[in-house]
Amino acid sequence: MNDDVRSLAALAIESSFGPDVAFTPTRPAADTAFSGSVVLELRVFGPNLESNEFNESRESIAHNEPNVSSESSAHNEPNEPNKPTEPNKPTEPTEPTEPNKPNEPNGTAVNVVLKHSCVRVLELEEDCGAEKREKTEKTDKSSVNECAFLQLYSSKLPPSTVPIPSTLYTKIHPTLGVTLLMSSHSSFQQLPVVPLGPRTTATLKWLANFHATFLQSRPSPISLKPLSESGGWDSGTHLCLSKRPPKEIDTLAEDLTNFAERFKDHHPYFNSPRARSQPDRGVVAAARKASEYLSSPTHPHLTMVHGDYKSGNFFYDPSDPSYVSVIDWQWTGPGVPSTDLIYLCVMALSDEACGDYESNVLRPYHGFLAEALPSGVRYPYRELVDEFKIAAVDFHRWLATSRTRTMTVESMGKSRDNVDVNHGIWRRSIERIAWLWKLVDEALDDIDKGVLKI
């Protein structure tokens, strides 16, 4: 921890716990692919730790079984996190004759996570180029978005149905950057694949309750406008065309053709007439319309979407399969629920769950959504299915033009050999990519029949 980060940490901890506390870094809480970001787990010591937000949440988040990882922050899939230490316990001295070691003061101790992102655009060279500058500005804005979301909305999330780590401190500074302090989840489990069963159910239920909280069709809805007014996004997810390079979609048909050719000997679908014909079936026009449809500020099912709903952002209670807590709000913003659902399917759920996506994903989600909405607020199931297929076309466009266009059999094999909880399943599974292509085939069929209208 350098001096600048230590100073920011000291300010955040004093604001949260008072002046009579000490702290020490225990480990990185996440590897991050964003240069200029640091995510650290800190152990805070003091005679009487009195952060109300932390104390209120400590009973619900303190568990005794450490597992795979702690908080992860980067949407673009960071490296495998370090294994955590066990949090949320007073540390007992290992030597009875030395109870007052310098790094273990007397009193109580809690673990917290510090996340700081500098203003990266200030570090760019003048001649860095427009594309690099625009990309860096978006990354900076994603950090502001996360902080703004937590400032505006974290207190509006029902802790019993939409649990997240306690937000202890937030600060947006125009030159120093964004600083967050949150309760730690390092005793929780993270799963590279969310298995069908209680864990999938919990993940769908959390998402349904999150969407229901912000659904704009409910009476007196929570306003979504303050997020963009505070420097955040006016549209959620990092996939939408407004956040992508302008000409990226122009290569979609070519990218699909080339991918099918590279993998035709490794999965039967990609050697089929369906796969070979998909690039010529109006998929580019459908993708443009899908992105516009899903980003509409007047969409009848507009809500807040998480925007990066993947395994790296899920923390499961080892002792309670029905409990999951979620992090990472860098790409959160107004949108349509199906964008989070397709993201979840391609990135995190098991083959078994996706194989019958209506029975295992859409129907359970819709049931939880209906339970969470006030009486009289309807979200017809068939509309959810249609929106899911439209979101599949949108995700397919992003994946083909920005991720799988350079994928090879060898690179997929390396991902299988080095499983990372922050990396989507599609990176290591040709079966998952084929599943998405087939779902897009269904959507294009429905568009041709006039059944699916965008």
TrEMBL record:
Residue ranges, compositional bias (Polar residues):
66-75
Query: InterPro entries given for it?
Result: Aminoglycoside_PTrfase, Kinase-like_dom_sf
Segment Disordered: which positions?
56-108
Among Gene3D superfamilies, the record links this protein to: 3.90.1200.10
Q: Which organism is it from?
A: Triparma retinervis
Q: List residues of the Aminoglycoside phosphotransferase domain.
A: 284-358
Q: Which SUPFAM superfamilies match?
A: Protein kinase-like (PK-like)
Give the protein's recorded name: Aminoglycoside phosphotransferase domain-containing protein
